[in-house]
């Protein structure tokens, strides 16, 4: 069906084109509205504004649907792994054996950090926030590899395969080095023969004279965790990557900006808040009942962390997968985490409460991801760093869309000015 949109302002009518996505989503195209009428559109925080067309991820929050390049997240979680899903998200199709091998080789070859770059770490206090370290060290990749970061779309796209693999691989290595640096432990270099997640665990937990050994479930759980975070449409950090990239800034610089955006507690830090909440409930000897009563007050300071989502209004499909994986992992490793028991009780109790039902509040991916990370030995202050490793393919894919869009323009939203009217300068300092 052909759609038409007509906007009536006072006594004048303006026809606006309607755009339809492949999944039937509809958007009124108001790009020419200002020129035709002098009016802008207002949408604080862009909650109902498409800033771009994208073919990477489809998200239907009403029905709990998440697909990457058409593939449902449930199928990817069951059959794929992080590296393959990263390839899919970045390049658009699942890799055949040759492409997978080539991509894997790039990841392995670019994993190590050169001695000169290692020196950067020593400039930070040992207790520096890991996300502050990660964002600045990732930005420094543009300084260390200027041939991959020319700030010229055409040239940067020629070297894109290498830059993309380097970003995924090195962000993981940098994360492990941050962990070790903060503990005063010597750096453990990557090992070429290890798969992506095993290599990360090796760099995190091996000793110089003793290799880290773990049950295969550990690397598998990490793989799933990263895969579930690999992309999530136009969230705050991904939009930031596109915004920065739209100025023709190189991939590494744009990724660093994404990491900065992710560091905020309203975005990447929610899993930390969940663990703190569960710990408080545990420490206070509450089984969750008192906490739920407080959460129902509507007071923001008592929110049930890990519940609710800006776009999912039914359920977060990632939460279903991760909740089950969390239970499986703890069972297999024989870990008894009292916080998991509290989380389960909270979930069951909240899902029975009218308050949560009426507001369509369900567990989101963060409700269980922190418990998995605890089981993997990852300290709370590194949770958001792990999220960043997982989200890197999504950021890269979005940067590439911006860079490859010949019709693209620099991102430049408008504003509604509500400041003072013109006034004459009067020197105040000497009064
Ligand atoms: N606990 C209790 N009440 C809640 C919660 C919660 N977690 N979330 C929303 N509500 C209530 C609000 O008070 C509001 O009630 P009202 O209608 O009586 O005023 C109603 O539900 C709607 O809330 P909004 O704030 O409009 O929901 P919004 O979509 O803006 O917020 C958000 C979504 C920020 C995720 C919110 O649900 C929240 O703060 N959740 C806890 C934090 C969290 O888990 N964040 C992680 C999100 S996932 C991610 O970023 C990877």
Provide a descriptive summary of the structure in words:
With about 425 residues, the protein is mainly alpha-helical. The chain has 19 helices and 7 strands. It has helices spanning about 35, 75-80, 80-90, 95-110, 115-120, 130-145, 155-160, 160-180, 195-205, 215-230, 235-245, 250-260, 270-285, 290-295, 315-335, 340-350, 355-360, 365-375, 385-405; strands at about 5-10, 10-15, 20, 25-30, 55-60, 65-70, 70. The strands form 3 sheets. A 3-stranded antiparallel sheet has the order 5-6-7. A two-stranded antiparallel ribbon has the order 1-2. The longest helix has 23 residues, at about 160-180. It is globular. The mean pLDDT is about 95.
Give the structure's gist in a few sentences.
The protein is mainly alpha-helical and 431 residues long.
Which structural traits does this protein have?
431 residues; mainly alpha; Rubrerythrin, domain 2; Cytochrome p450-Terp, domain 2; two-stranded antiparallel sheet; 51% helix; binds acetyl coenzyme *A
